[in-house]
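Practice problem: predict the structure.
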Amino acid sequence: MSGQVREGHQGTGPGAITPDGCAVELYERLPVGDEPDVIERAVPARARILELGSGVGRVTHPLVERGFTVTAVDESPQMLDRVRGARTVCGPIEELELGERFDVVLLGSFLVHTGDPRVRRGLLRACRHHVADGGCVLIQREAAGRHENLPQEREIAGGGLVRVVSSEPVRPGVRSVHVEYVFPDVRWTQTFRSRPLTTEAFEDALAEAGLTVDAYLTEDRTWVRAVPVLTGR
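Answer:
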């Protein structure tokens, strides 16, 4: 599916736009949040990490600087061109077959909330397939109420503004989300589809993939450490 626009996804603004509507130049501007701190606290030092959906390396680069060995996967070659210090693999996550396993598999950016359940199953299958028996999978979930009380906005470094404009139902369980990124000199937009998941639905999706929750890592329960379910032992 690489290179094709994903259904219900689009983006506007200067520079290359990825199949899910992300603007490459925008993600070079966006600062990293607390993701590296959350990850570092949750996994062994110097672990081998498979980062699924790395983008331009906003999280990749801090992890490399902290001594982790990272393999960065993304379906956008333009995104991966910006990644430094890590091995890169270009292709859709749900089709990934590396033939190796890792101490940690990382699925951030709320990818688990994709509107297409087939893609979600593929993402979680890739996580389970590539995590070592004694390893873990770190997943970033949407916060409760993410699709409510809109529009919402927040300031970001560099004088920018992120505005979640709307979240509208498009079919049962799926919403179309429209976001604006406004800087003094440029503006980008992204529209994408998201499927809100209750805790029960999220944990059921993990179980279907052969994973189970080990811990919720943050107070808002947006970061989760899951481990593989081992059978026949």
